[in-house]
User: Which sequence fits this backbone?
RNA sequence: GGCGGAGUAGCCAAGGGGCAAGGCAAGGCUCUGCAAAAGCCUCAUUCGUGGGUUCGAGUCCCACCUCCGCCUCCA
């Protein structure tokens, strides 16, 4: 992939900066995870998918990425919820953490390199709090430990506010022993019955912000590259992280760059648990394929809000389907010529050959003599890379795929060799060379589709035929525990739907194995019917052919005739 | 009130000083036994409003209007 300098918007400096990693060739990222006490919704999916794409893109650029995401597995809401359900808090949060992972798996989100939990890093946190007290940045009050914002002059820099302004809006809870309204708890004394850990200040538990400082520093070291999360975390969470971390290390900056994603809204309102207006990932995956959900979320720039509604989802469905069908057709035509995993195609820029081909073409009828596919491929790659390198502009990156899809369909339509034989042109320019050229172009296009749409964005399934026909490997229905390492195959490339099929999480209750066996049978039966239909068509017995097609249609099977033979897919509602 | 962000075609959405990407929808057409799919063409003298800077402004400046986020848990 060409080395277009990578630039992105840094929340701290409020402008686009050129990204240079702390360690050459390696990128360290920490993204704030969730507080698992309920099912995940689209608002959780957005940052997960966005950072997943960031990670995959950086990897594709040749960087080695270390990605860490935390679980805040002990806090007020977890305790409250656990009390309501009558289960131990840590058991509850562990359960929902696993459910979160299952949902993200289903969305094709690659597993992070580590998922540290607060409850498993208490000593680390205690040590940090202790040191902050010793250094005079924190003080003890009635079993609580507070960070003193006045001891940290740079406080407010990330959120662009001065202390006095913050004070105006700050609320002080009754009974708190803060010296300054903006001071925040590093350690909270336990109330009777609450889970607690021993500390020099009595039994208690960590405050909300300290965990991320302790764990990110622990896993990634000081000055790590990118710290991210939803934009709603800027203040106070990330502001506080900076303060306590830099006060602790005495060696700023805690983080080199801050990266925040915009929120998902419904009816012009932020989607959130507390507002009760959320749609769970599970619910959405009942109706939509995971790759489409990614497409939907990535079709808006990451810093802008995404307005979610069933209508919005439905409206963007068709466009995605065009991409999918093109990808499907590309796979059909290329057959085994298209490797399961695209090779890095090296320098595929515009070559002298492509230029010459273009210049020497006769006539202007594009339908008969399409612009060399190689050129379109090179353009798509360049546009894609430029877009991604310029503040992760996924909408433009996706538009490059639409342009490529058009070029591919045009080439396909011009009459091209099928996978079976390279000479079988039905239209197009006469002569075997033209066919060969286009076949080569199609191969390049196929490889690029896989590289950009499947491997980096994850908006198209790795196996489009299986996806389109509703068959394929068993769905991931049970979450691997957090502690369990990701499967080996998922390390480098993540074919999104090789594992996660449309139903994914939603299908948790379905007998997966049986379903797969059945869909295999369906596939064979449909193929059989289509063979019969082809015979009928050859006899010009269109009544019979149409009957088969219509009946299949009633069963939800769409049949389409193409120059390369009939193809079918399941209809999506 | 303070801080941050947004208003671009019927809808979604890029762009961000040199005469408006992409997608959906709509209309016309081509291919096809028919259909579907695909392709071609049409679809914003105009970028919330009013001023200003400039040879030139969605793009910069000022004011105003509307909306959203944060300031409390939040992805």
Assistant:
């Amino acid at each position: 992939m060409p080395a277009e300098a990578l630039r992105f918007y840094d929340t701290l400096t409020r402008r686009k900066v050129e990204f240079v990693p702390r360690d050459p060739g390696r990128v360290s990222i920490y993204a704030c995870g969730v507080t698992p006490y309920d099912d995940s919704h689209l608002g959780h999916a957005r940052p997960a998918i966005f950072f997943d794409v960031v990670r995959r893109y950086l990897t594709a650029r040749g960087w080695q990425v270390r990605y860490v995401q935390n679980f805040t597995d002990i806090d007020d809401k977890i305790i409250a919820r656990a009390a309501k359900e009558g289960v131990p808090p840590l058991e509850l949060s562990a359960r929902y953490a696993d459910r979160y992972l299952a949902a993200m798996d289903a969305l094709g989100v690659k597993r992070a390199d580590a998922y540290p939990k607060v409850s498993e890093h208490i000593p680390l946190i205690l040590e940090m709090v202790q040191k902050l007290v010793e250094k005079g940045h924190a003080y003890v009050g009635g079993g609580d430990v507070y960070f003193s914002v006045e001891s940290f002059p740079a406080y407010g820099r990330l959120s662009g506010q001065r202390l006095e302004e913050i004070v105006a809006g700050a609320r002080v809870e009754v009974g708190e022993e803060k010296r300054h309204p903006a001071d925040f708890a590093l350690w909270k004394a336990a109330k009777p019955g609450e889970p607690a850990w021993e500390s020099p200040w009595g039994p208690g538990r960590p405050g909300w912000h300290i965990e991320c400082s302790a764990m990110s520093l622990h896993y990634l070291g000081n000055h790590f590259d990118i710290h991210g999360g939803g934009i709603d975390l800027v203040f106070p969470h990330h502001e506080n992280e900076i303060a306590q971390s830099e006060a602790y290390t005495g060696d700023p900056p805690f983080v080199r760059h801050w990266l925040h994603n915009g929120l998902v809204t419904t009816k012009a309102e932020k989607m959130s648990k507390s507002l009760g207006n959320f749609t769970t990932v599970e619910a959405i995956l009942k109706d939509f394929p995971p790759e489409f959900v990614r497409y939907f979320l990535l079709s808006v720039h990451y810093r802008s809000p995404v307005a979610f509604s069933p209508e919005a989802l439905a409206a963007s469905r068709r466009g995605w389907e065009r991409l999918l069908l093109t990808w499907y057709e590309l796979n059909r035509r290329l057959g085994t010529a298209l490797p399961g995993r695209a090779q890095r195609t090296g320098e595929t820029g515009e070559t002298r050959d492509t230029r010459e081909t273009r210049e020497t073409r006769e006539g202007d009828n594009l339908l008969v003599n399409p612009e060399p596919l190689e050129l379109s491929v090179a353009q798509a790659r360049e546009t894609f890379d430029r877009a991604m390198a310029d503040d992760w502009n996924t909408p433009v990156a996706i538009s490059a795929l639409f342009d490529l899809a058009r070029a591919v369909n045009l080439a396909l339509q011009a009459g091209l060799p099928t996978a079976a034989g390279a000479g079988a042109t039905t239209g197009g320019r006469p002569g075997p060379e033209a066919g060969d050229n286009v076949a080569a172009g199609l191969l390049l296009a196929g490889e690029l589709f896989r590289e950009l749409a499947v491997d980096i964005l994850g908006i198209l399934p790795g196996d489009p035929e299986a996806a389109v026909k509703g068959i394929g490997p068993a769905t991931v229905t049970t979450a691997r525990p957090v502690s369990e390492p990701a499967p080996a195959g998922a390390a480098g490339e993540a074919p999104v739907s090789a594992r996660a099929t449309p139903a994914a999480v939603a299908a948790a209750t379905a007998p997966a194995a049986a379903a797969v066996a059945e869909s295999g049978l369906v596939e064979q039966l449909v193929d059989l019917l289509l063979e019969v239909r082809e015979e009928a068509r050859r006899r010009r017995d269109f009544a019979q052919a149409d009957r088969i097609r219509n009946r299949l249609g009633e069963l939800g099977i769409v049949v389409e005739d193409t120059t390369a033979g009939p193809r079918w897919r399941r209809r999506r509602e």
Remarks:
- The radius of gyration of chain A is 27 Å.
